[in-house]
């Protein structure tokens, strides 16, 4: 055990202790006077009378406040050393609690310095009592809390910054949500407007053709864009009916304008010269003069035909011409399916003149003529969506449904389109015309609703 005045030092490199060299220094430290320790302590000390008058104060606290001892001892009270706010808190809370409890620890106050600055401190006070229990004086310890105050202010600032960031993020989220809702509302209004405009470019219903059954389906690839596919069916005279189906180039309002001009031109030309090749020639001239000749090449593909139902044998003659359009598909009641060749057809409107050839066929009872746009044959299939459905796929599908009536055929094709999923990225129009088989009932003579892809 080490004794006072003979503290040992760990051995040096030679194994010898350093007791003789170090002991005098430790002895000198332990011989410091209590007064010196009081005056030079790392915290402030002061003693006050019960009314707060300063009776004793150490040099540390005087140095912090920039005061002289003779200006403080016996001349000022402890509360005089505090800021206005600190003085108010001392009078209303600190002093009353100290009198009641006899001791307070770690109370945050602010003291004022002669330099006009504020010194944040933590104050602990205790009442010293006499032998009879009477209060004699108050001993107070003052700890500099500047670093703590700076830390608290920095922490508060960071919390405020974090709260401000949180509020800004919440405001941004709310603004984004409002923008999303507004965009969604705008998109719905646009979709409604486009749907109305799209419907104006297509017949609401198809008229009933005596002795024939018809069915249509229109798939819109995007509710945000106007499609370019079109079709129609209308009477020419007492026993002949005109029909057409096609696809204009492009999307949107310009495609809608081209579709409108195409439909009305075909209708007008059909009533003037009801011959398929002549009707397409007229349409080619109108589109070329209106667009391509002026430096804005626009065109369409189109199949135009004339129907003449048989008077009593149930056979219907069909004459049609094609301008760059996929070939029509004829499905026979005996299970055969074949494309109807229409050679020589060019894109309608692309060139000043274009040859069109009229093809003819007859629909016997149970036969069906299918018109379609290239959205069907150009649908992407396979696990990686890298193959086209193509005309061969359509021909195989038709062979499996050759005996189906028009409405049943269109229903089966509609399910086929759904099966393509995101591989079907173009508008698709389907139009079937057929003569009912001997066992099938005659269709009712009323307009048939048009089937459309839901938005």
Please name the defining characteristics of this protein.
single chain, alpha+beta, 20 strands, 36% helix, 26% strand, disordered C terminus
SSE layout and pairing:
Blueprint: H1 19-30, H2 34-39, E1 44-49, E2 54-57, H3 59-65, H4 84-101, E3 103-112, E4 118-129, E5 135-144, H5 146-200, E6 205-206, E7 213-219, E8 229-235, E9 241-248, H6 252-272, H7 276-290, E10 300-309, E11 316-323, E12 328-331, E13 337-340, E14 358-363, E15 368-372, H8 374-377, E16 380-381, E17 387-388, H9 390-400, H10 406-420, E18 428-434, E19 448-449, E20 451-452
Parallel strand pairs: 7-20
Antiparallel strand pairs: 1-2, 1-5, 3-4, 4-5, 6-19, 7-18, 8-9, 9-10, 10-11, 11-14, 12-13, 12-15, 15-18, 16-17
Helix pairs in contact: 6-7
Description:
By secondary structure, the chain is of the alpha+beta class. The chain has helices at 19-30, 34-39, 59-65, 84-101, 146-200, 252-272, 276-290, 374-377, 390-400, 406-420, and strands at 44-49, 54-57, 103-112, 118-129, 135-144, 205-206, 213-219, 229-235, 241-248, 300-309, 316-323, 328-331, 337-340, 358-363, 368-372, 380-381, 387-388, 428-434, 448-449, 451-452. The protein has a six-stranded mixed β-sheet with strand order 13-12-15-18-7-20. It has a five-stranded antiparallel β-sheet with strand order 2-1-5-4-3, sandwiched between helices. A five-stranded antiparallel β-sheet has the order 8-9-10-11-14. A hairpin with a 5-residue loop joins strand 16 and strand 17 (387-388). The longest helix is centred in the middle third of the chain and has 55 residues, at 146-200. The model is unreliable at 1-9 and 441-455 (pLDDT under 50).
């Amino acid at each position: 055990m080490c004794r006072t005045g003979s503290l040992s030092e760990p051995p040096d490199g030679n194994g010898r202790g350093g007791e003789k060299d170090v002991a005098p220094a430790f002895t000198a430290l332990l011989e410091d006077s209590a007064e010196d320790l009081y005056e030079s302590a790392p915290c402030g000390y002061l003693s006050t009378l019960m009314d707060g008058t300063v009776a004793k104060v150490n040099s540390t606290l005087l140095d912090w406040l920039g005061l002289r001892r003779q200006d403080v001892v016996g001349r000022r009270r402890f509360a005089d050393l505090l800021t206005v706010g600190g003085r108010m808190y001392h009078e209303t809370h600190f002093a009353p609690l100290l009198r009641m409890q006899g001791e307070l620890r770690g109370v945050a106050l602010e003291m004022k310095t002669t330099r006009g600055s504020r010194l944040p401190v933590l104050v602990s006070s205790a009442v010293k009592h006499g032998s009879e229990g009477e209060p004699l004086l108050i001993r107070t310890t003052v700890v500099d809390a500047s670093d703590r105050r700076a830390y608290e202010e920095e922490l508060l600032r960071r919390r405020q910054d974090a709260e401000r960031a949180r509020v800004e993020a919440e405001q941004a989220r709310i603004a984004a949500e409002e923008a999303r809702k507004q965009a969604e509302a705008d998109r719905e209004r646009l979709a409604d407007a486009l749907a109305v405009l799209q419907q104006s470019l297509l017949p609401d219903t198809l008229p009933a053709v005596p002795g024939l059954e018809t069915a249509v389906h229109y798939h819109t690839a995007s509710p945000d864009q106007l499609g370019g596919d079109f079709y129609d069916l209308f009477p020419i005279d007492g026993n002949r009916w005109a029909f057409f189906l096609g696809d204009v180039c492009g999307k949107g309002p310009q495609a809608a304008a081209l579709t409108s001009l195409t439909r009305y031109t075909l209708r007008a030309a059909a009533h003037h010269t009801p011959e398929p090749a002549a009707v397409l020639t007229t349409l080619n001239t109108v589109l070329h003069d209106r667009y391509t000749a002026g430096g804005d090449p626009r065109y369409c593909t189109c199949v135009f035909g004339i129907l003449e139902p048989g008077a009593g044998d149930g056979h219907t003659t069909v004459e049609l011409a094609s301008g760059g359009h996929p070939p029509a598909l004829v499905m026979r009641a005996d299970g055969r399916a074949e494309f109807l060749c229409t050679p020589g057809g060019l894109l309608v409107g692309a060139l000043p003149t274009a040859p069109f050839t009229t093809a003819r066929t007859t629909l016997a009872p149970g036969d069906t003529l299918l018109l379609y746009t290239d959205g069907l044959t150009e649908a992407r299939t396979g696990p990686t969506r890298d193959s086209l459905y193509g005309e061969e796929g359509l021909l195989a599908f038709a062979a499996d449904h050759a005996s189906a009536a028009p409405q049943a055929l269109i229903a089966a094709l509609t399910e086929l389109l759904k099966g393509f999923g995101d591989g079907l990225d173009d508008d698709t129009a389907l139009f079937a015309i057929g003569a009912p088989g001997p066992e099938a009932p005659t269709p009712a003579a009323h307009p048939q609703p048009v089937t459309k892809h839901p938005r």
